[in-house]
Specification:
This protein is α/β, with parallel strands linked by helices and about 220 residues long. The protein folds into two domains: about 30 residues; about 180 residues, Glutaredoxin, CATH 3.40.30. The chain is about 35% helix and about 20% strand. The protein contains six helices and nine strands, in the order ααβββαβαβαββββα. A five-stranded mixed β-sheet has the order 5-4-3-8-9. It has a two-stranded antiparallel ribbon with strand order 1-2. It has a two-stranded antiparallel ribbon with strand order 6-7. A hairpin with a 5-residue loop joins strand 1 and strand 2.
């Protein structure tokens, strides 16, 4: 009996090694990259979602829009057609989180400066203050690339509706006017079908690293 095991010892070792290799190959084949989630209103903190949408579980997309950028140009959803983009909400006179968020948007702009499929979109939550001239001044100060990054102003109700009903990104300010809002630090990743694919803390460098990785991951979905 001992002789039998001795004769087959090397065979057993080789067989075991081959089994490990085969299992590893199968695992790698089956380990297909998991796509980013398609985020629906029902998945988001209800404070950020208009009450009419809190139970929506599918088919949510960013609505059509028409706003004015830092150059006085009308920007619509057509300017972002077939693009992956990062959106946020800010105002130029903010002295707290906005400068950090804008610096991080600039970092993303720099990371994808040669990729025309990646764009940025920043909405002013104080359009009565952020005129075209004010946005242009801010854009020049912050190094905004006009071909890649639009800072937009316009009708306050439209911006409010976009924030609450499309991007699910800001909180109501219940003690103020009908269309007042508290903007958050959220960056949103939007795919080519105008669907939300991720939320990120725009003030956190680690979150920006995660966002950049997710942009690259989302790009691979279209390859």
């Amino acid at each position: 009996m001992l002789s039998f095991f001795k004769d087959y010892k090397y065979f057993a070792i080789v067989f075991a090694l081959l089994s490990v290799i085969i299992i590893a190959i199968i695992f790698n084949i089956l380990n297909v990259e998991k796509p980013l989630p398609i985020i629906q209103p029902s998945m988001v903190n209800s404070e950020l979602v208009d009450t009419s949408l809190v139970d929506v579980r599918k088919y949510h997309k960013i609505a059509d829009f028409s706003l004015i950028n830092q150059n006085g140009k009308t920007i619509t959803q057509e300017d972002y057609k077939d693009k992956i983009y990062v959106a946020d909400f800010f105002f130029t006179t903010c002295q707290t989180i906005c400068p950090i968020m804008t610096d991080h948007m600039y970092f993303i702009q720099k990371e994808f400066k040669n990729d025309s499929n990646i764009m940025l979109l920043s909405h002013s939550v104080t359009p009565e203050i952020d005129s075209v001239a004010q946005l242009k001044k801010y854009a020049l100060k912050k190094g905004v690339d006009d071909n890649k990054w639009n800072l937009v102003t316009g009708d306050k109700k439209q911006i409010y509706d976009l924030a609450r009903k499309s991007y699910l990104a800001v909180k109501n300010y219940e003690y103020s006017g009908q269309y007042d809002m508290i903007h958050t630090e959220n960056f949103l990743l939007i795919d080519k079908k105008r669907q939300i694919r991720g939320y990120y803390d725009g003030t956190n460098p680690d979150e920006i690293t995660r966002l950049i990785a997710d942009i690259k991951k989302l790009k691979r979905e279209y390859e």
